[in-house]
Design a protein that fits this description.
binds copper (II) ion; 12 helices; five-stranded mixed beta sheet; Immunoglobulin-like; 384 residues; four-stranded mixed beta sheet; A middle domain of Talin 1; single chain; globular; 49% helix
């Protein structure tokens, strides 16, 4: 998936670590609906054509909120903090003129940072975190939320393995009709937990890459080459059977990784935001399921995944910031109301080709309206 490396630009190391006045904000954070978040330190970073400005960042261990701004870069639009191959936090889709936030709990150490785009996620600089390791979360309700989320993700991964097993069996049997029947249903648990898969580096591209994500000479694997074979070519050959077996191995690996994974409450909030980003970047556009046109079913699964994370955080959020809790609740209700007319049965939704331009716009607006308050969730949860 990543494109050839952009040469790193030699630049003097500038660093900022904007530490907010802890005491003042700590007393105010019980009811901060004014957009001021918890007592996390705030670190400003600007996305430019060349990477991040400043190129390298400094922070102290503990909760941190990165304020990401894109003034005028038409090339780059996302910011990531990487712990080796793992994505610790990211903010995507920050197009020119926009800004956004991502909150994370930082342990001491050196991290790679990326100011890039979906086609280029090569590190552009470093983040150096000093100080003592901090306990991530002290609020017992948030810890409970994170534990319950881990269990839920596990259950979804298990369901994914089960459904993929049936789908792969149909491919192995060369049964195009049966495989097409199972495809849409099979992908639902994946789309619900996609940010977790994404956090494991190469696993998401292996399972879910589209043809345009693949660098020349790289092998295209996962669901989407099978989608193309089923809907466009209408045939299953040895190559597709091999792709299906590889897919099975990859989803089993995902399940093993989720089984031992634990979460920081702020990751639930970040995952919810990423799912909304997924919807606006790949579902509204019809990019994700361009052969089967099952985008709306993925769309609903992404929303369900975000909703699960929110529902688990909600009891704590209602005390931290009741207005934000209510606002997110209402926007979720609007989102589901906007999707409802397209429901076919169960969790399956209308063929996206039948959804007109104006209707797509309406869905997109509901997503944006939900994404806005949801983006403030992480800042309220981090450091609690
Ligand atoms: Cu996807």
């Amino acid at each position: 998936m990543p494109d050839p490396r952009i040469p790193s630009i030699a630049r003097p190391v500038t660093a900022i670590a904007a530490v907010a006045t802890l005491a003042a904000l700590a007393t105010a954070c019980g009811s901060s609906s004014d957009g001021t978040d918890s007592d996390a330190q705030r670190v400003a970073v600007t996305i430019t054509d060349d990477g991040c400005d400043p190129t390298d960042l400094e922070a102290t261990a503990g909760p941190a909120t990165f304020e990401v701004e894109n003034v005028d870069s038409a090339i780059n639009n996302e910011f990531e903090v990487l712990d080796g191959a793992l994505i610790l936090g990211e903010r995507e889709n920050v197009t020119p003129g926009l800004s956004g936030e991502v909150s994370v709990n930082l342990d001491p150490g050196t991290y790679d940072i990326v100011c890039g785009n979906p086609g280029n996620r090569e590190p552009t600089g470093k983040l150096v975190v000093s100080g003592e390791r901090q306990a991530a979360t002290t609020d017992p309700r948030l810890r409970e939320a994170a534990d319950e989320y881990a269990e839920w993700v596990d259950g979804e991964a298990e369901e994914l393995v089960r459904r993929t097993g049936a789908f792969v069996a149909a491919i192995e049997a060369g049964d195009v009709g049966e495989a097409k029947e199972l495809y849409e249903h099979t992908r639902i648990p994946y789309e619900r937990i996609e940010p977790v898969a994404e956090s494991f580096g190469g696993l998401d591209p292996a399972i879910d890459a589209r043809i345009n994500d693949i660098a020349q000479g790289d092998e295209w694997t996962g669901f989407h080459p099978l989608e193309k074979a089923l809907w466009i070519d209408g045939r299953i050959g040895e190559r597709e059977k091999a792709t299906a077996r590889r897919l099975m191995t990859d989803v089993e690996r995902l399940r093993r990784l989720t089984a031992e994974n634990t979460y920081d409450p702020v990751q639930l909030a970040n995952g919810a935001v990423e799912l909304l980003n997924e919807v606006s970047l790949t579902k509204i556009t019809g990019e994700e399921e361009r052969y089967s046109h099952t985008d709306l079913t993925d769309f609903k699964a992404n929303i369900d995944g975000a909703r699960e994370a929110f529902v688990l955080l909600a009891p704590a959020l209602r005390e931290i910031d009741p207005d934000l809790a209510t606002e997110i609740e209402e926007r979720f209700a609007d989102m589901y109301a906007a999707l409802r007319p397209y429901r076919v049965e169960g969790n399956l939704y209308e063929n996206y080709e039948k959804v007109g331009e104006r209707e797509r716009q309406e869905l997109s607006q509901a997503v944006d309206a939900l994404a806005l308050p949801l983006a403030r969730l992480g800042g309220q949860v981090v450091g609690q």
